[in-house]
Amino acid sequence: MGLQVSARNFGGFVAIFFAGLLAAIAPHYAFLLYGLAVFFLPLMWQVITDPPRLSATQQAAQASAMPRRWRAACNFGGNDLVADADQSHLFL
After folding, report:
1. Are residues 65 and 42 in the same domain?
2. Mean pLDDT, to the nearest integer, of 53-58?
3. Would the pLDDT of 74 be above 70?
4. Angle 46-41-53 from CA coordinates, rounded to 5°
5. Do 65 and 86 lie in a common domain?
6. Taking CA atoms, which of 39, 48, 59, 87 is between 20 and 30 Å from 31?
7. Which domain holds residue 13?
8. Which pLDDT does position 85 carry in this prediction?
9. For position 13, what pLDDT does the model report?
10. What SS3 state is found at 68?
11. Looking at the domain assignment, is residue 9 inside a domain?
12. Could you tell me which of 62, 44, 42 has the C-alpha nearest to residue 52?
């Protein structure tokens, strides 16, 4: 997670730096930097894929293999929000 945040922050720094250089030439050139994303769109369309969807039985098997306290932290919409009565203070 830390590397992802670092890479995103560094990318933002580089983008702002180059936008500043382009803005020094002409103010409207800074917006050309955002147009570069159009060239990366076909590459990202092919590279980024969704993970395979699990069936209901596979989801149940995966949930039962997970420790109960992690199920409580991960399953916000279900009945496992609070794992035990003595841990209910953790979710308030």
Report:
1. no
2. 81
3. no
4. 40
5. yes
6. 48
7. 2-47
8. 47
9. 93
10. helix
11. yes
12. 62
In a domain, 53, yes or no: no
Examine the domain organization and report whether 42 and 62 are in the same domain: no
Residue 83 lies in a domain: yes
17/23 Cα distance (integer angstroms): 10
Distance between CA 20 and CA 41 in Å, rounded?
24
- Rounded CA gap, 75 and 54, in Å? 16
Question: For residues 68 and 81, what is the distance between their CA atoms, to the nearest angstrom?
Answer: 10
pLDDT for 83: 47
Amino acid making up residue 66: M
Tell whether the model's pLDDT for residue 34 goes beyond 60.
yes
For residue 52, is it within any domain?
A: no
- For the chain, the average pLDDT equals 75
Question: Which tokens go with 72?
Answer: 């409580």
Q: Mark whether 40 and 11 lie in a shared domain.
A: yes
pTM of the model: 0.44
Residues 62 and 42 in one domain: no
Distance CA 56, CA 78 (A): 14
